[in-house]
Design brief:
The protein is an alpha+beta fold. It has helices at 16-23, 43-58, 66-77, 137-148, 190-202, 247-258; strands spanning 4-9, 12-13, 28-36, 39-41, 83-90, 100-106, 118-123, 153-157, 163-166, 170-174, 179-182, 206-209, 221-225, 232-233, 236-237, 240-241, 262-264. It has a seven-stranded antiparallel sheet with strand order 2-1-6-5-3-4-17, with helices on both faces. The chain is globular. The two termini are 25 Å apart. InterPro entries: Aminotrans_IV, Aminotransferase-like, BCAT-like_C, BCAT-like_N, Class-IV_PLP-Dep_Aminotrnsfr. This is Aminodeoxychorismate lyase. Pfam families: Aminotran_4 (PF01063).
């Protein structure tokens, strides 16, 4: 388990009372990022996510601008150059329109893929899917149910039958000539957005289109993408098997990831 190195709330070292205050509020949002040598891939997108979600949940007047947030992240990092950082913006009981901003710094997580998991589809839709919010009960419950059934994780399907997103990841596919992302109501993951930038920069084709479980046998590879790993190949979804090494999909995503620049915090 990763060690927690620092927790600050509103720019001050957190005590037990302030951590309890934030931990017991489930109305808010967060973002997670990997820091290497004091820099982050897609820092601009993480800050934009925090600003946009704050306006959506707390209103236009919330002071969660990028400059302030960037300063809070840098302060919490201190001398740590390599780390995992989670920024949580949570409502305060006494003043819901002045949320707490908690920055937690912990050990860095290697981004190398793990053994390819097998996942199953399940009909499930997150509330406010475009927001990375704190209501994560379903994101924990559904994978546990999948593991009890012999799978490693879950891929969600909307009530309309469309494939959407994984428990804590976006999903990408290879159709034989390009990368394909499901068209559905999903969290626009930072890593997914960066991979699309990289693919475009390299001139590698990709598209977003509706996909259902019936389309799976016709696809050549599948992978999960999130802030921990830009390309985690999937060994299978339901009864459809895919190359455990990700094949051409992994090659395309690795090339796209390699051209994404690092931004100093």
């Amino acid at each position: 388990m990763a060690r927690v190195l620092t927790i600050e709330i509103n720019g001050r070292r957190a005590d037990a009372e302030s951590v309890y205050r934030v931990a017991t509020r489930n109305f808010g949002h967060f973002t997670s990022m990997q820091v290497r040598d004091g820099a982050v891939r897609g820092l601009d997108l993480h800050l934009e996510r925090l600003e946009t979600a704050s306006r959506a949940l707390f209103g236009e007047g919330i002071a969660c601008d990028g400059g302030t947030l960037r300063g809070l992240i840098g302060r919490a990092l201190g001398a740590d150059r390599d780390a995992s950082v989670r920024v949580t913006v949570a409502a305060r009981l006494d003043d819901p329109l002045s949320p707490d901003v908690m920055v937690a710094v912990s050990d860095p997580v290697p981004d190398a893929p793990q053994p390819a998991p097998r996942v199953r589809t399940v009909t499930y839709e997150r509330e406010l899917p475009h927001v990375k919010h704190l209501a994560t009960m379903g994101l924990s419950y559904q994978p546990l149910q999948a593991r009890a059934a012999g799978f490693d994780d879950v891929l969600f399907v909307g009530r309309d039958g469309r494939l959407s997103e994984g428990s804590i990841w976006n999903v990408a596919f290879w159709d034989g000539r390009q990368v394909v992302w499901p068209e559905a109501e999903v969290l626009p993951g930072i890593t997914m957005q960066l991979l699309r930038r990289g693919l475009t920069r390299l001139g590698l084709p990709w598209e977003v289109r509706p996909l259902t479980a019936a389309d799976l046998p016709g696809l050549g590879a599948a992978a999960a993408t999130n802030s921990i790993c830009p390309c985690q190949p999937l060994a299978g979804i339901d009864g459809t098997s895919f190359p455990a090494d990700g094949g051409a999909l992994a090659e395309a995503l690795a090339a796209a990831w390699a051209v994404i620049p690092w931004e100093a915090v």
